[in-house]
Design brief:
The protein is an alpha+beta fold and 124 residues long. 28% of the residues lie in helices and 32% in strands. The protein contains 4 helices and 5 strands. A 5-stranded antiparallel sheet has the order 1-3-4-5-2, covered by helices on one side. A hairpin with a 5-residue loop joins strand 4 (99-106) and strand 5 (112-122). The chain is elongated. The relative contact order is 0.24.
Length: 124
């Protein structure tokens, strides 16, 4: 499936509008994602991204790169928050097995906000 040159990264700056639109689409309107006043009183101090918004953005990049592959599974962890208006680096590194190592990190401090893997399956 891949070679070392298949490693890929891109940058993205999520906005509060992205969080709000994802909440509307997914039905996950937890105030930690969409309510600035509520979020200001939490340990995060502001709204944080939905984890699946981060993965969805990364998945879109994978689909562009490998349109002939289907998604088989993913295993994800979200060790740190992603905030609106903070630049993120989205990266993946596929292997011949179909496994893809994936990460999303804050550019400012390098903190990972999503780490995991997914598996792609050839064919439609």
């Amino acid at each position: 499936m891949t070679t070392a040159t298949d490693e890929f990264s891109a940058r993205w700056v999520p906005t509060q509008a992205d969080f709000d639109a994802f909440a509307e689409l997914s039905g996950d309107d937890n105030p930690i994602h969409v309510d600035a006043e509520f979020s200001a009183r939490t340990r995060f101090g502001r709204t944080v991204s939905h984890g699946m918004l981060l993965y969805s953005r990364l998945w879109a990049l994978l689909r562009q790169r490998y349109p002939e592959h289907r998604h088989e599974m993913q295993a994800l962890m979200f060790p740190n928050p992603a905030y609106p208006e903070e630049e993120l680096e989205l990266a993946f590194s596929p292997a011949d097995t179909g496994e893809v190592a994936i990460t999303v990190s804050r550019v400012a401090d390098g903190a990972p906000v999503l780490v995991g893997q997914c598996r792609l399956e050839a064919g439609r």
